[in-house]
Specification:
single chain; 223 residues; alpha/beta; 2 domains; globular
Length: 223
Amino acid sequence: MSFNIAIDGPAGAGKSTIAKKIAAELSFIYVDTGAMYRAMGLLFLRKGIDPKDSAAIEAAALEADVTIGYENGEQQVYLNGENVTASLRNEEVGNMASATSIYPGVRRQLTALQKEMAANQDVVMDGRDIGTAVLPDAQLKIYLTASSHVRAVRRYEELKAKGIEGDLAVIEADIIERDQRDMNREISPLRRAEDAVEVDSSNMTIEEVVETVQRLCKERRGV
């Protein structure tokens, strides 16, 4: 039987960073749900569908088979059997993914594909509704959070490292606004699953968070 770890939490809490490290440590598959939505967005772009055409978007979504694999240790994303990893960081693809992820049909299709992967493989999956909607039966659920100020500082430092100037107050205001939007959206809002373990990383290093999740995983697996 496969073992599933679901990591949810607000933007900037470090979910992807932690999920990738945990997956590598445990030799699990890391399922990048965001990349799967971008692959779907790429499909819609290729078909020339207007993102406001909900009927066309939902019809096309039914044709999409999006899977995750690894080549030379690097995660690859496949759309209907084609490796599309190199195309997913395109801004146009990201915008299409953002505009179309709101449609129930898109979410249903990708949720079904994500559930299928988790049923057959040991996975670590992160997002905003993994423990509540995608993998409600995951053996370990983590709600990873941090204060809005800490998350804003992290984002500010990331931008600074890239040579991009940012306004810390504006960044924090954006994060708070996004939290409210994610928590109050109609479809699969961000919330902590009742059986999730909350991990507040505000005063923790990445290594400490990884150690905490690994310890919880060992307890659940009886190792």
